[in-house]
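Good morning,

Attaching, inline, the backbone tokens for the sequence recovery test we're adding to the shared suite. The designed sequence is right after.
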């Protein structure tokens, strides 16, 4: 496998090395292609990402990515938006499930749902007009964009409990009527049981009763917000992995950002990135390795080897080292 490695900015520079130590422990046939992208590079060179970088990414099978800082500078081209668009990774897949010995907001731990977020359009279309008194962002919903995310989510639901929840706001935004109609049709065609909820009441229901849900499909911005919110259910943003999937490429990254408030201190939780690595292994068909990795994570948490956000005393690199050593005893 040819793996592009992007540390990015902030805690990305800490969690990616920890995840790579874990990957190396498996001694798989992986060719790593390091790429420097993001805000630090922009400050140094004036570009955050170029067409050449995209070409390099396209030659790789998949990407592991830390985080990048996106400054509110109108001249700054968002690295993540550029990559998602150029590699056309339309599905952002975010599994949410409790981990052993980690306290979330509920005592019940019998939930396990996946947010499937449309990744290329919606309010993150990037089509904006910035004015002195009026600024607008165009919310783009297309039939094609909705159908491929709906089909992805329906298929995923079919491989799980066959239950799909469509989250939207079509009563206020007519653009969501198209999204809702296409999702309903896709689920019906796939023989998947489906229901839909308005995003505001859904947010309330999800926090109160997460065990009622399995696969959730929604548009770009709603998916972004709902997945950060889901971090609270499982004990923190430092625990949420994600995959960006397209027809040809896959890109794995923690849900959290560059966390400038804690960057440079070797205290960021590497588990969101390590769990993203686990999704990468599964995507690549390394199922046995993914299972060993999960066992290593469970073992670290049960032993209290974790970063301060989870109440532990271990550093980012110590968690990576523990996981790597555990894996070496199993492979
Ligand atoms: P960005 O603009 O890059 O998204 P942000 O300021 O929104 O940066 P996030 O990375 O989204 O920061 O983090 C939000 C909060 O969660 C911060 O307080 C951060 O310290 C915390 N956090 C994020 N990632 C981790 C992590 N891996 N381990 C521990 N805490 C984290
Ligand atoms: Mg953030």
């Amino acid at each position: 496998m040819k793996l592009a490695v992007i540390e990015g900015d902030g805690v990305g520079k800490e969690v990616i090395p920890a995840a790579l130590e874990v990957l190396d422990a498996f001694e798989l046939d992986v060719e790593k292609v390091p790429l420097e992208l993001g805000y630090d590079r922009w400050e140094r060179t004036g570009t955050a990402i170029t067409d050449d970088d995209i070409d390099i990414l396209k030659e790789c099978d998949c990407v592991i990515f830390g985080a990048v800082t996106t400054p509110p500078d109108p001249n700054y081209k968002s690295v993540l938006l550029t990559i998602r668009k150029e590699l056309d990774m339309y599905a952002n897949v975010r599994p949410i499930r409790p981990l052993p010995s980690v306290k979330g907001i509920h005592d019940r731990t019998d939930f396990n749902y996946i947010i499937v977020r449309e990744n290329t359009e919606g309010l993150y279309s990037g089509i904006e007009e910035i004015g002195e008194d009026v600024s607008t962002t165009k919310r783009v919903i297309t039939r094609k964009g909705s159908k491929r995310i709906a089909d992805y989510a329906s298929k995923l639901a079919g491989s799980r409990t066959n239950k799909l929840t469509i989250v939207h706001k079509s009563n206020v935004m007519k653009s969501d009527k198209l999204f809702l109609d296409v999702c309903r049709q896709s689920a019906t065609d796939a023989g998947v049981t489906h229901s839909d909820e308005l995003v505001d009441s859904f947010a309330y229901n999800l926090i109160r009763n997460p065990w009622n849900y399995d696969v959730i499909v929604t548009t770009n911005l709603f998916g972004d917000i709902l997945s950060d919110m889901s971090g609270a259910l499982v004990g923190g943003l430092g625990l949420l992995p994600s995959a960006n999937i397209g027809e040809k490429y896959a890109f794995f990254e923690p849900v959290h950002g560059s966390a400038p408030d804690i960057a440079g201190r070797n205290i960021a939780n590497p588990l969101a990135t390590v769990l993203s690595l686990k999704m990468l292994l599964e995507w690549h068909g390394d199922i046995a390795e993914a299972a060993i990795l999960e066992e290593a994570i469970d073992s670290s948490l049960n032993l209290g080897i974790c970063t301060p956000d989870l109440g532990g005393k271990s550093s980012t690199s110590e968690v990576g080292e523990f996981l790597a050593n555990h894996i070496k005893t199993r492979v």
